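Justification of resources, computational component.

The compute hours requested in this renewal are based largely on the per-chain cost of generating structure records like the one below. Each record pairs the submitted sequence with a full structure-token output. That output is archived, and it is also reused by downstream analysis tasks.
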Amino acid sequence: MSVPTNTTAPTPAQLADHRGRPRPLIEVPLSYEQARLGLAFHEAGHAVLALAYGMRVHTSEVIAWAPEPGRWGVTGSTRSESSVMSPWHFAAMCAAGQVAQVGYLLAYGLWTPERALACAAEHDRAMAVDALAGFGIPLGVTSVPEGGKSWGMVRGMARRKVGHLWGEIRTVALAMNERTKLTGDEIADLTGLPNAVMPRAEVAS
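The structure output for this chain reads:
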């Protein structure tokens, strides 16, 4: 696969976290093809665990662009929702992107400490911290708060689930790398996992 031909950078909204702040762009010592596939594994980790935990996935994609000759950028996005789910399952789904991306580096013989560190995805962690805070549940970044868990413990939860579903994640990642964007129903077809149907509200008029 050649470098991206799209020269238009994603919109600020596509590069923002859930709070609307720009996500940092990190340089990594990988070729475009390697980085793109790694991001596909990252998004596949989110999407597959979302399905496994009973969420509805709308889309999951890799986004690539070349702002100028010899330079390129790649990121990703997975859109999902759920009406009822465990807060800890949501946190593990957030952590699954990093876990799956590091798993890709290990599986393809690309792991180095620098590359693994670049998979950290602090915006995913921040989203989990904020979401659990809404339930009154503390999620610690570097320590275990009273009545809660640490991000390291959440990554451990995600690691076990990612390991169990690695075949499905790999299948989705390869398909996403090839097609760029997958719908939740396409991911469900690829994995055999159900894509939950969200209840619709009835409004009297």
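The longest strand covers residues 56-68. The CA atoms of residues 87 and 131 lie 8 Å apart.
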